[in-house]
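Lab notebook, bench 4. Still working through the backlog of constructs that have no structural model yet. Next entry is a single chain of 261 residues. Request: give me the structure tokens for it.
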Amino acid sequence: MTGTTARRTAASIAVTAALACVTACTPADGPTDDATDPSTRSLRSVERATGRAGSARVESTTVMGRELSLDAVGALGWRDGLTGTLTITYTGGTTAETMRRLGTTAMEARYLPDAYYARMGDVFADRVGGRHWIKYVYADLEDLGDGAGAGFADQMRKTTPHEAVKQLLASDDVRKVGEETTRGRRTTHWTGTVGGATEQTVDIWVDDRDLLVKKVERGRTETGELSQTAYYSDYGVAVSAERPPAADTADFKELLQGAGR
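Model written out:
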């Protein structure tokens, strides 16, 4: 693999991973909910409680057809824009195979309000002057001509638990499934479908403090089934995401320009 090909491939992969690990099947906005409906009132309480919590630990598993499957673990905050750090491990799909050729099957992802950082492996760093981190400014991703980053910043803002509840509130068939035990905790299960390019199903499990314990989203992509299961815990946990050293960071936009994009 040439240096140019490595730069282009790794940059593309990290965009895909950034979208996949936290957005998965992020549904499109739907109809306005009816505030008098009992389901709406209950979910509004969940939205407020989860939003006030401001942060949580996250464990998620994402599958995007034949393209990739990955696990992510870490903590995210949403008080002043999306912040946090996740460790992402590629477990299958064509992306995982390409990452192996680049010398790694896992990376650290840092989310800040204006940009996303991905730490690549040593093999990739050798091809870009020893720099291990790629920086993705959300505004630059929005400008991508091929649509790969379209709506990225907006999607990132919708990845947190309270935003997931907002998406479910937009469903016109949201309903309470019943009481269930989730990771040893008594929870209430809600489900609904949300329209978009394709119909997507959203399920959430809420504890007695009106906080999300689990979220499952399902849909389809051109390469097959798309799904994400996420677990949330330790609401209010301290979250940090430091910018990597500038000398060890390559800018995504510059990488693409260097690859002849």
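Notes after review: The helical segments are 3-23, 38-53, 93-101, 122-127, 138-142, 152-157, 161-169, 252-258. Confidence is low (pLDDT under 50) at residues 24-28. Flag for follow-up if needed.
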